[in-house]
Write a structure and sequence with these properties.
Length: 163
């Protein structure tokens, strides 16, 4: 009986430690519009959907991301922080994506060239029903755009999910 209690306590402590170490290993969080030393900038890096209802379904927002340099940037990957969030690159020839959370299905490479002084629209779609009834309340989700140099731009969405 005592061994069972000790095993349960150790398992809980291990899960807490694992959760904290995974948070620390995420992409770096830089200033507004950029992360680290990224050459990509966003006119807004945070969008708050406000209160959104599960019964109304998907919500989306378009972020404008610009190449602020005089050199072309190859966007290598686009990933999200949660399975409830998808991102798309909008180009003249159509949408690329969906790009989602690594480890939660296939996330295709972005392989998108943003020419010097040009921009791209990044559409972020959040599904308030993805987590079911447990997903009610405040959410904070991220989209990470990484170029071939390893520089990352972080975009953020927030909302308060209601039934």
């Amino acid at each position: 009986m005592n061994k069972t209690i000790i095993i349960i306590i150790l398992a809980i402590a291990g899960l807490i430690w694992w959760g904290r170490s995974n948070q620390a290993a995420g992409p770096s969080q830089g200033g507004v519009g950029t992360s680290g030393n990224s050459s990509m900038v966003a006119s807004e890096a945070l969008y708050d959907f406000g209160a959104i209802s599960m019964k109304n379904g998907l919500v989306s927002h378009i972020f404008k991301v610009a190449n602020s340099t005089d050199k072309d940037i190859e966007l290598k990957t686009v990933t999200t922080s949660c399975m409830c969030t998808k991102a798309y690159i909008e180009t003249a020839s159509g949408e690329k994506g969906p790009f989602g959370m690594p480890g939660m299905g296939f996330v295709p490479p972005a392989n998108d060239l943003i020419k010097a002084r040009e921009s791209r629209d990044i559409k972020v779609v959040y599904d308030p029903n993805a987590h079911g009834p447990a997903g009610i309340g405040a959410i904070d989700r991220f989209v990470y755009l990484t170029d071939t140099n390893g520089e990352t731009l972080q975009l953020e969405t927030k909302a308060v999910v209601t039934p």
